[in-house]
Specification:
This protein has 349 residues and is an alpha+beta fold. 17% of the residues lie in helices and 25% in strands. It has 7 helices and 15 strands. It is globular and about 55 Å long. The C terminus is likely disordered.
Length: 349
């Protein structure tokens, strides 16, 4: 793979996704500074309003104000990093899914979504700016810059999110894995080393260094990892099977229970100009794009003539598998102007 094609792949992977709905796009046209926060936007909340937990307002959170599901970080000005956590620890042995909507402009040193144990000190960076979720072995975080962090190491992972984006977290505390979604489009598995010990208390967390930044919890559900879940995960990837299943009223509850597994953009994205769908229609030019498009729900993709061909498949659990047809291709590492990110892929296993 040529150096130029790898650079283009990195640029494509690091591009920002559009907002989930048209409310923020209209705001962008009317207010180019984007400092106005849309409090009345309810797009994306109509499919599920169940919240099994909220943000814990009983713990002192310097520089943050919690109003039920909405967190307002640094209401006046920012002098460091503010962090909040959920009211209840996540049950081990269960699967958990929740969504966070970026209600304000996304900027500053970092704004993160993730999880952490009860050993995380929420006030440790009150007067310093940093990417706090993932600085140690007790937390795992996803930055708005498109990187994931754990144990002080940051890896380039996926798309950057912006104001109006919905970030989804699918946590499997039976297997110890975390998958991430942006605007309800799966981005792939970010971590596979989360604790599964029942004695460990793991909480959902948020952090922000940006003044007057807001994040909103849209929903939070939990369920068991069983045959029903894996069956629905497979069915949601095949529209014909889903349509046939929906003809039986008895399965209506099951279909609605796993609504977040749907991988078609137009089913949820209310924006008339869906740039994600347009990106799906473009043929992949290299391995990185092939993996990205597969994460977005695209099928098998191949390289152009005289280049190495790759076939992207997945197993029943939705894990990506890359089959090399002609030759091996190694993964390089690169430096970023913000931090040292290690680029990696999953075809060396």
């Amino acid at each position: 793979m040529g150096l130029l094609s790898m650079i283009y792949a990195d640029i494509e992977r690091s591009a920002k996704v559009p907002p989930f709905c048209g409310c923020f796009l209209r705001q962008e046209r009317e207010d180019p500074t984007r400092r106005y926060i849309i409090d009345q936007c309810r797009c994306g909340e109509e499919h599920c309003d169940v919240c099994e937990w909220s943000w814990d307002a009983n713990i002192p959170h310097p520089d943050s104000h919690i109003n039920n599901r909405l967190v307002n970080f640094h209401p006046v000005y920012s002098q460091g990093t503010a962090m909040v956590r959920g009211t209840e620890p996540l049950r081990m042995g269960m699967c958990h899914y929740w969504e966070i909507k970026m209600m304000s402009p996304v900027s500053g040193t970092d704004m993160m979504v993730g999880v952490g144990t009860d050993k995380v000190d929420l006030t440790s960076h009150q007067y310093t700016f940093g990417s706090t979720l993932g600085l140690d072995e007790h937390s795992w975080g996803y930055s708005y810059r498109g990187v994931v962090l754990h144990s002080g190491r940051s890896y380039f992972f996926g798309k950057k999110f912006t104001q109006g984006s919905i970030v989804g977290v699918l946590l499997n505390l039976r297997r110890g894995t975390m998958e991430l979604y942006i605007n309800r489009v799966p981005q792939g598995q970010a971590f596979h080393d989360l604790p599964t010990d029942p004695n460990v208390k793991l909480y959902p967390m948020l952090s922000s260094t940006a003044a007057k930044s807001q994040m909103k919890l849209l929903n939070a559900v939990s369920f068991e990892e069983n045959l029903q879940y894996h069956a629905m995960r497979t069915i949601y990837r095949h529209p014909q099977l889903l349509a046939e299943l929906q003809t039986y009223p008895m399965f209506d509850i099951i279909v609605k229970r796993f609504w977040f597994l749907r991988q078609t953009d137009d089913a949820y994205n209310t924006d008339t100009i869906d740039r994600i769908s347009k990106r799906q229609q473009q043929p992949p030019e290299n391995l990185e794009n092939a993996v990205l498009l597969k994460n977005l729900g695209e099928g098998t993709s191949k390289a152009t003539k005289d280049e190495t061909e790759y076939e992207v498949t997945d197993d029943v659990y939705g894990n990506l598998e890359i089959t090399h047809k002609e030759k091996e291709t190694s993964c390089n590492s690169s430096d970023d102007d913000l931090d040292c990110y290690e680029f990696f892929c999953n075809h060396g296993r």
